[in-house]
Design a protein that fits this description.
By secondary structure, this protein is mainly α. Helix content is 38%, strand content 3%. It is built from 6 helices and 2 strands. Strands 1-2 form a two-stranded parallel ribbon. Strand 1, helix 1 (18-28) and strand 2 form a beta-alpha-beta unit. It is globular. It starts with a strand and ends with a helix.
C-alpha cells in the first residue's frame, strides 16, 4: 500500500496537517506498507526550473524552493506564487505539465530535489519486497 500526501507544511518546522498525521499513522500500521509525505509543500516543488522553462515567459526560472507556494492562492495574498513570480502565469494544467516534463526528467536532474532520491529508493525496495512475497 502506498499513498503520497503532500505535507501541507508552509515552512520548515511547521506541523503536518492533522489529516496527514492521521493517515500517516494508519498506513504505518499496515504491514509492508509505504507512505511518502513529501518534504516539499507540493509535489510540483520537486520540479527543477530547467524542467519548467518551457512554461516560462523569459528564460529558465529558478528551481522552486521547498516551501514555495507553487500555485496562486484563492485568498487575497500579497505574496506571488512560484507560478506567478517565475513563470508569469495564473494557472497551469497539471496533467499537461506532467506529460510535458516527465519525459525530460533524469535521475541526475532530480536526485538532489529534497527527499526524492531517498523516497524513490524506498519505494523500489518495497516493490521488490512485494514481488518476492508473491513468488512461491
Amino acid at each position: 500500500m502506498r499513498w503520497r500526501p503532500h505535507s501541507g507544511k508552509k515552512w520548515a518546522g511547521s506541523r503536518l496537517k492533522e489529516r496527514v498525521r492521521k493517515i500517516k499513522k494508519q498506513v504505518e500500521n499496515v504491514p509492508n506498507s509505504h507512505i511518502w509525505v513529501t518534504e516539499a509543500k507540493e509535489i510540483e516543488n520537486y520540479l527543477s526550473g530547467e524542467l519548467l522553462s518551457s512554461y516560462a515567459a523569459n528564460g529558465t526560472p529558478r528551481d522552486p524552493k521547498q516551501y514555495d507556494r507553487f500555485f496562486p492562492s484563492k485568498k487575497t495574498d500579497k505574496d506571488l506564487s512560484y507560478l506567478e513570480s517565475q513563470l508569469e502565469r495564473k494557472s497551469i494544467d497539471k496533467m499537461e505539465l506532467a506529460f510535458e516534463v516527465a519525459p525530460r526528467m533524469t535521475k541526475e536532474m532530480m536526485r538532489l530535489r529534497f527527499d526524492l532520491e531517498k523516497q524513490m529508493t524506498a519505494i523500489i525496495e518495497k516493490i521488490a519486497l512485494w514481488n518476492d512475497e508473491g513468488e512461491v
